[in-house]
Amino acid sequence: MITAALYFGYGAISLSLLLCLYRVVVGPDLPDRIMALDTLYINGIGLLVLVGISLNDSVYFEAALLIAMMGFVGTVAWCKHIIRGTIID
Questions:
Q1: What letter would DSSP give residue 89?
Q2: Number of structural domains the chain divides into
Q3: In angstroms, rounded to a whole number, what is the distance separating the alpha carbons of residues 63 and 3?
Q4: Considering the entire predicted model, what is its pTM?
Q5: What CATH number has the domain bearing residue 73?
Q6: Is the alpha carbon torsion for 4, 1, 13, 61 positive or negative?
């Protein structure tokens, strides 16, 4: 039963990754592309968690945590760049 749930999760996250990648490439303006990149980070975290569950390895959970921290910092930096034109004050 858990195998079927993992396969469903892989399919759902893969579809979400493709749709977000489409939004990054074709997005109408820059804020939409930044939000799509942020969503790509979140989907990558979900994919790593699923791999960690299926392989029963805790290293993937630590990698997901690192990607979450870097994704947050990257999103804040992009937003500061859009609003102020510079990242460091």
A1: -
A2: 1
A3: 22
A4: 0.82
A5: 1.10.287
A6: negative
